[in-house]
Amino acid sequence: MRKLKTMEMQRISVEEFHEAEKMPLVVVLDDVRSMHNVGSVFRTCDAFRAEGVYLCGITATPPQNEIHKTALGAEESVSWTYFRSAAKAVEALQRDGYKVFAVEQCEGSTMLDRLGCAVTPAGKDDKYAVILGNEVHGVHQEVIDLCDGCIEIPQFGTKHSLNVSVTAGIIIWEFARRLML
C-alpha cells in the first residue's frame, strides 16, 4: 500500500463546497472556550459536508489565528452563524424545522448506538442539529430543556467525558453514516 498524495485525493474546492449538497446537520457550540476546539469542529464539519456551525455565547468566531490553526481553512468553507446564546440558536433551528439534540449525559438520554429511528431513515426534508457544550460545564440546562432529546456517547473508562472536538467527530460521523452513506 502507498499513501495517496493530496492531489490524488481530488478534493473539491471551497467554491465547489459552497455549491455541493450538504448533510442536513447543524453543529451548535454552546460556550466552547477553546479556539482550537472550535477549529477542529469546523474541520470535521468540512470533512462530512455538514450544513453549518452555530457559534454561541463566548464561543469565538472567525477570523482568529487559533481557530485557523486547527480548522486549516475549513472556517472559510463551512458556513457559520453567531448567536448570543445557544437557547436562541435552538429556538431558531426549531422554527426552521430542525430536530435538535443536546449531546449530554442526561436522565433519559439516548445512547448514540441506539439512536436508530430518530435519524434513520431520514426523510427528504428531515433536518437535525446537535449541541455540544462548554469544556467544563457541558450544555446549559436551559438549552437541554428546549431540545427534542439528548444523545449520549457510551463510555467504558474512568473519565466521565470526552474532549468536545472528539465528541464532535464521533457524533458527526454517526450522523453522516446514517444520512449520507
Would you mind describing this structure in some detail?
The protein is of the alpha/beta class and 181 residues long. It has a single domain (21-152, 162-179), classed as Alpha/beta knot, CATH 3.40.1280. Helices cover 34% and strands 21% of the residues. It is built from seven helices and seven strands. The protein has helices at residues 14-19, 35-47, 65-71, 74-77, 86-95, 141-146, 164-179; strands at residues 23-30, 50-56, 80-83, 98-103, 110-111, 127-133, 149-152. A seven-stranded parallel beta sheet has the order 3-2-1-6-4-7-5, sandwiched between helices. Helix 2 links the parallel strand 1 (23-30) and strand 2. The longest helix is centred in the C-terminal third of the chain and has 16 residues, at 164-179. The mean pLDDT is 94. This is TrmH family RNA methyltransferase. It comes from Palleniella muris. Keywords: Methyltransferase, Transferase.
